[in-house]
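ok here's the first one, seq then struct tokens
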Amino acid sequence: MWKVQETLVLEEEEEEEDASNSCGTGEDEDDGDPKICRACGDRATGYHFNAMTCEGCKGFFRRAVKRNLRLSCPFQNSCVINKSNRRHCQACRLKKCLDIGMRKELIMSDAAVEQRRALIKRKHKLTKLPPTPPGASLTPEQQHFLTQLVGAHTKTFDFNFTFSKNFRPIRRSSDPTQEPQATSSEAFLMLPHISDLVTYMIKGIISFAKMLPYFKSLDIEDQIALLKGSVAEVSVIRFNTVFNSDTNTWECGPFTYDTEDMFLAGFRQLFLEPLVRIHRMMRKLNLQSEEYAMMAALSIFASDRPGVCDWEKIQKLQEHIALTLKDFIDSQRPPSPQNRLLYPKIMECLTELRTVNDIHSKQLLEIWDIQPDATPLMREVFGSPE
């Protein structure tokens, strides 16, 4: 009786969700042909829990996992799942979701969902800034602010990675066909080198933040909270400038890294897949240096970081940066459908970076539990317990 009730509730909730969702919030990898849900074949709205799915399968998977349902197939566990019959067998539908790569661990808690909704609401508010009048240009104050911002970005980010000669040497697996065990030293061959690379990036981001207008006017506690919360996101933004979408590699001066190198530092597909996806998503925007710099500043001045006290002041600073970014795009880029969508797409990227940040934090702590080869600065910034 209980199983029947759960199935009916799942179906009722899915009907409500189908009626209220005419578009998705996931991120398509391309903007061309319509995407197909890999679970049921319906129109997909983006990547949800690590797989391209429709809103219906996204909601079904989330509810089934959060309720820890014990579903059973009345037939032979071989039901064909498609758009028309996907509600006929919940067990086979859940199995199909898992088979296409949907991950239970990506389902957020209710508190995390509320936090993400609040973040999206704030980002949505920033996308509703008033339109820039035709032919308008940046105000002198905005131009001065942008000059300072780009100057700080340029001075604190060595695009050639000349300091990399001082990193611990690269060590890659001698036998790439053998997947190392998670607890073996072979699983972390690249961790010392990657730790030095990330530490180098962190130092640059701290220097960047200190040079930002208004940052030093904040209390030291808020400065620390903003940096700790944003370092991973700003690192992705900076690494995006050297990301090659054709090869899915990062070309950092004398070294070129790929996801296999990250794997050999202990990271797994749960983090690497969304990481590559956000990099490809950002590279498609063809951002200019000014836009990269403002995107980094928007990430730093996020008032909802844990430990922030003067959130109202920080929120006003972020809104000022957002308005400058929008005015820059409207005044400096030629009118086109792509450029009209650039500002909201940047806001969308910043939201997606939060998800990548959360997964990164969890995986990093898991790595350190097994192999504590991290620099003191990394431990301080990412909050690893001693």
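and now the second one, same deal
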Amino acid sequence: RGSRPSDTRSVPVPISVPGARLTPTVSPPQGFPGAGHPPPVGPYPGGPYGGGPPPGPYRQPPPGGPYGGPYGGPQPGPYGGAAPGGNTPPGVDPEVFSWFQSVDTDHSGFISIKELKQALVNNNWSSFNDETCLLMINMFDKTRSGRIDVYGFSALLRFIQQWRSLFQQYDRDQSGSISFSELQQAFSQMGYNLSPQFSQLLLARYSQRSPSPNPSIQLDRFIHICMQLQSLTDAFREKDTALQGNVRLSYEDFLSMVVTRML
């Protein structure tokens, strides 16, 4: 039986925000983030665990963008086409298009995992890890080509704004990373009722290796953990039709659930 998961600067920079940094073609400046969920915002109504369904595929950031971020333009159009050279595509913020062209180092009209990884660094200047970059590419890759076009990139920036805003909200000591107590509080406020032992397990698995006795996670790992938690919770909820917080699964059903949800 499954357990009950929850009750429910030496160069100019495009943005100056703690958290992630976007590095276009030059060295370290400041920056920004599958199954397709924005950050969880509260308990699931009437359900025994957390992580409510979003009102739409991408929630809009507050006016002006969190922490002074310059985006918040119109919702992008359908994905799938390469960006027209030189001219800003309809529905895309001109500044976002400029960043897209900077990150698109091979001028293909698409952003690959390698290009995205080269453009994103954490608050401690470490690169985003491969798994999180792959997760984000998969989320916004509507053509299943392993790349995102300018519309997917625009949506991805909006999405990362949301995660970066949450990350800074939960980083209460403004250290640039999330500690054990901050992670526990984040899970609680997202509507997940998870044990301290589980949070410790996640920190041990996802924190950067260091001699520090107090492990913590950067923005890329925070995104990865929360997205996988949401995805697996959704998979569990599909099986828990009575919303009892427990299900009966065969071994192969369990494996299938994990494989299809681990992005």
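notes on #2: The two ends are 24 Å apart (CA to CA). Residues 150-170 form the longest helix (21 residues).
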